[in-house]
Amino acid sequence: MSRPDGDGAGNGADRDELDVLAAEYAAGLLDAAQMRAAERQMDADPAFAKLVWTWRSRLAPLDDAAPVVVPAPELWARIEEAIGRPAPTAPARAAAGTAVRDEWPGRFLGERLRRMLGDARAWQAATGLAVAALLLALLPSVRPSEGRPVAAAVLQGADQVPVYLVEVFADRSLRVKPLGAVPVAEQGRSLQFWTLRDRQEGPLSLGLLPAAGLDRVGLGGLPLPLPGQLFEVTVEPFGGSPTGRPTGTILGKGLTAAL
Amino acid sequence: MGATMGNGAEAADGGALAPAAYAAEDASLRDPAAALLLRCARGDKAALRGLYDQEAGRMLGIALRILRRRDLAEEALQQAFVQVWTKASIFDATRGPARGWLHAVVRNCALHAARQHGRFQPLGEQEDAADEGEDALARLGRRADGAALRACLQGLERRRRTLVVLAFQEGLTHADLVERTGLPLGTVKSWIRRSLLSLRDCLAHAGTGP
Question: How many CB atoms lie within 10 A of CB B106?
């Protein structure tokens, strides 16, 4: 398989094949099984995902030029009702399987943190650096094969008990993991996850928090959190705060420390 | 109840809040839909309504081209907006305009529905496939941002251009294209492949495309 293009080592042809696959996925040419395979490949391979996004941008003008068709008037009401429902309100990456299985590692981590820091007073006195040092010591042992987080925060609740661990990764994704007992919102309530970068800007919602936490959720347009950025989980009415700002009890809060 | 983040900021170690020195908001100022998505990520339902008012019509048009059935297309549009709401915090403004992301979401919903329900071609709507390519060129010509793609599509031989445009607009698989055009499967696959690579190279040289 030799071609004059690419880097001359035959890799040009392989790259072309991957590019064509990305194009065919972006263009909607693949059948059901092929689509699912391509979506799994996007999850597993950031380079392939990038190829797909590039193709979407290239072909976007065709969709921008699509005819406008006015939806039936009742459609918005159906959408509103659908987003009011419990459903998987967390971004797609929050895997259903993490709920129970992760409880043990989370509890384990929480226990180790507690033992290393001693009692609640020690927690209160702990500086960001101390927490960071602890996390550095503990995190590699939890999931050594994944990318390391660049920052983390321990969200503490009443009596400074650690409730959640927030890990920030270089690709601007977050993982939120319950430490110890998994907080579950009661009937008619939802847990919501917030960050505060600047008092004037006010709290920014990062979405609803399922009981199992969040696994590699993107930060969207937000930049990487700076050290000392506040993260918080509150208990809100079902479906999240109706005002766009926290209205409920704080379940846990903490500041990020760089790792 | 009701302890807000305003007075909760003095957290465990009493550290100071980070200063606000972020450029992310600039991007959303240039892209109003991105600003709305950011507000959706914060749980602002009015922002979702704003996006719906601005974008739902075109998104329905995209879904209809793929699904051909009004009821299925509206269902896909509804699913798309639910996904927009729940995934708004994942939207990455650095990857491109918000509208493109919205279109990708509805396109994905429509394609999955099309694969599930099969294609539906209403009687009497079998338009001449050959015109699709030329119509697309005309529509692209009316938009400033379609200039590069239009020029590059024009560089393709007419039947290959039609294949690419049909495939994209109607979400047709290779097998669907065989039915639609009467060409053999091998020809469809190789024409598509070469046309896509040719478009890629042409857009790279155009300098405006990625």
Answer: 28
C-alpha distances in Å from residue A231, one per residue of A110, A120, B42, B112:
18, 20, 14, 36
CB A250 within 8 A of CB B8: yes
Euclidean distance between CA atoms A96 and A99, whole angstroms: 6
Q: What is the pLDDT of residues A205-219, one digit of tens each?
A: 888 888 778 877 877
Interface size, chain A vs chain B, as Cβ–Cβ contacts under 8 Å: 275
Q: Tens digit of pLDDT for each residue in B153-195? A: 999 999 999 999 999 999 999 999 998 889 999 999 999 999 9
DSSP state of B199: H
Give A156's Cβ-side CA count (13 Å radius): 24
Closest-CA distance, B17 to chain A, in angstroms, reads 6
Contacts of A219 in chain B (CB under 8 A): 89
The strand pairing partners of A230, in sequence order, are A196, A255
Task: Answer whether A52's CB lies under 8 Å from A19's CB.
Answer: no
pTM: 0.58
Which pairs with CB-CB distance under 8 Å and at least 24 residues apart come from B153-157? B153/B199, B155/B198, B155/B202, B156/B195, B156/B198, B156/B199
Report the complex ipTM: 0.83
Chain B nearest CA to A95, separation (Å): 14
